[in-house]
Amino acid sequence: MARRTLKLVAVDRPFVVRGSKIAGKGAFATRDIKKGERIIEYLGERITHAVSDARYDDHSGPAHHTFLFNVNRSVVIDAYVDGNAARFINHSCDPNCESEIERGRVFIDALRPIKKGEELAYDYAYGRDGTETIEDEMELYGCRCGSKKCRGTILEEVTKAQRAKLEAKANRVHHEKHTAARTSHHKK
C-alpha cells in the first residue's frame, strides 16, 4: 500500500510581516500590488461592543493597543483571538490601503499602486465618543506614521468646531486643576 502525503499549499499573500518604523510589526508588500486589488480579509473573533469594552480598557494602560475592528453597531472583530496577518497592517494618515466592509466582512484593498517593499497602511480613523482630550490623542491615540499629512492621531479627523470643543475642554480641565491646587494650598 502506497503511503500518501498531504501537501500543504502556502496562501499567496502579497505581503510579509516584519518590524516596522511606524509601530511594532507591519505588513510589507512582497510584490507590486495594483490599485483596487483586494489584499486580505480582516479576520478574528466576532464579538459585541460590550464584550470588546470589557476586554480592553483604553484608559487602564500607558498605550492603546488592540486588534479590534468595528464592523457595525453590534459587531466588533477581535483579531487578537483567531485573527490573521491583517492585524499587522499599521495606520497612516496618508494610506496606500483602505478598509471595505461588505456584508459584515472586512477587507483591505489597495487605494493606489503599491511597490514591492512598501509598508501597507490604512487610516484607522478610530471613532470619537466625545470624551477624548488632547492628552488622550497624544498618549493613547498618537500617530507615528511619519507622513507629511500626519494629523498626529489615529482618531478620525475632527472638524474645526470639534477641535474648538476639545481645546475648550482641555482649558476647562486645566483651569479646574489649577483652581483645585490653589484652593488646596490656601487651606493648609
What's this entry about, in short?
The chain is α+β, with helices and mostly antiparallel strands and 188 residues long. The protein has a domain at 15-127: SET domain (Beta-clip-like, Beta Complex), CATH 2.170.270. The chain has 3 helices and 10 strands; from the N terminus they run ββββαββββββαα.
Cα Rg: 21 Å
By CATH's scheme, which homologous superfamily of the domain at 15-127 applies? SET domain
Q: Which sheet architecture does the biggest sheet show?
A: 4 strands, mixed
> Which percent band covers the strand fraction?
15-25%
SS content category: alpha+beta
CATH class descriptor of the domain at 15-127: Mainly Beta
User: What letter string, H or E per element, gives the SSE order?
Assistant: EEEEHEEEEEEHH
Largest sheet: spatial strand order: 1-2-10-7
Helix fraction by DSSP (H/I, runs of at least 4): 10-25%
**Care to count the β-strands?**
10
Assigned CATH architecture of the domain at 15-127:
Beta Complex
Shape: globular
How many helical elements?
Answer: 3
Descriptive account of the structure:
The chain is α+β, with helices and mostly antiparallel strands and 188 residues long. It has a domain at 15-127: Beta Complex (Beta-clip-like). It has helices at residues 49-55, 134-139, 160-187, and strands at residues 15-19, 25-29, 38-42, 45-47, 68-70, 76-78, 90-91, 97-102, 105-110, 119-122. The strands form three sheets. The protein has a four-stranded mixed sheet with strand order 1-2-10-7, with no helix packed on it. Strands 3-9-8 form a three-stranded antiparallel sheet, with no helix packed on it. Strands 4-6-5 form a three-stranded antiparallel sheet. A hairpin with a 2-residue loop joins strand 8 (97-102) and strand 9 (105-110).
